[in-house]
Amino acid sequence: MAVRSSGGSMPRSLHGAADRATDSSALEKLARAGFAASGVLHLLVAFIIARLAFLGAGAGGGGNADQSGALATVAGQTGGAVMLWVIAVGLVALGLWYLAEAILGSKPKERGEDKTGWKRLKPLGLAVVNFAIAFSAARFAMGSGQSNAQQNAGMSAQLMQSGWGKALLIAIGIGVVAVGAYHVYKGASEKFLDELRGSHGTSVTAIGVTGYVAKGIVLGGAGLLVIFATLKADPAKASGLDAAVKTLGEAPFGKFLLIAAAAGIAAYGLYSFVRSRYGRM
């Protein structure tokens, strides 16, 4: 595979390394497995949210409604450690693929004009997210996994003790709200179809729209909670997705809202399997 020009923004050696790595069919297959692993985790998060809706947090429906809760669920199964290592490997491969996309400025398997510098931030951010979840999966596989909610609340409590820390938390909250809004836009406009090869039926479109919009709303809620929690100096409410879901359950008609959230997150998980098979790499 030829090395693409970067307009001087990236060393040719980095471009060459990224090209050679993504020319490997094995890496592409592992990256596709990463989408499937993400699908499994989203389905498990959806299951946890549904359990909260029907059982409540204090009556057998406890658990963290986030990636760490999903990983803990996997860890508790027979052969869970092996499954967690498989998930970790797939997510690392997907992270490397996104990293290559950030370096090359375009999708590794496609030709085209390089993206400008700021447009490389999206695949770079996705690479970081996948690496982070892979690291968490590895920790759970080794028996040292921790709840995201507890870690986030502890970190938020420390940051809230200083002015710059509060400003950082508010900036993070705004960033999460922006990501959530983008998910809603991507789903409502059906822009996600650009990620897939070929044409697909209405069922795939419906799953994608539902999944992206639902995940966007939940992410937006989590970001708003971080902002409000920072202003009120309440670190427990700044603990991410889990806090957002449980706050949703405390609202009027909370049970129905949780069921809708569970269905939406499950739809996003199903779409991840579609992307594993038909995604443009």
TrEMBL record:
<dbReference type="Pfam" id="PF06724">
    <property type="entry name" value="DUF1206"/>
</dbReference>
<keyword id="KW-0472">Membrane</keyword>
<feature type="domain" description="DUF1206">
    <location>
        <begin position="126"/>
        <end position="188"/>
    </location>
</feature>
<keyword id="KW-1133">Transmembrane helix</keyword>
<feature type="transmembrane region" description="Helical">
    <location>
        <begin position="162"/>
        <end position="185"/>
    </location>
</feature>
<feature type="transmembrane region" description="Helical">
    <location>
        <begin position="35"/>
        <end position="59"/>
    </location>
</feature>
<protein>
    <recommendedName>
        <fullName>DUF1206 domain-containing protein</fullName>
    </recommendedName>
</protein>
<feature type="domain" description="DUF1206">
    <location>
        <begin position="211"/>
        <end position="279"/>
    </location>
</feature>
<feature type="transmembrane region" description="Helical">
    <location>
        <begin position="206"/>
        <end position="231"/>
    </location>
</feature>
<feature type="transmembrane region" description="Helical">
    <location>
        <begin position="121"/>
        <end position="142"/>
    </location>
</feature>
<feature type="transmembrane region" description="Helical">
    <location>
        <begin position="251"/>
        <end position="274"/>
    </location>
</feature>
<feature type="domain" description="DUF1206">
    <location>
        <begin position="33"/>
        <end position="104"/>
    </location>
</feature>
<feature type="transmembrane region" description="Helical">
    <location>
        <begin position="79"/>
        <end position="100"/>
    </location>
</feature>
<dbReference type="InterPro" id="IPR009597">
    <property type="entry name" value="DUF1206"/>
</dbReference>
<keyword id="KW-0812">Transmembrane</keyword>
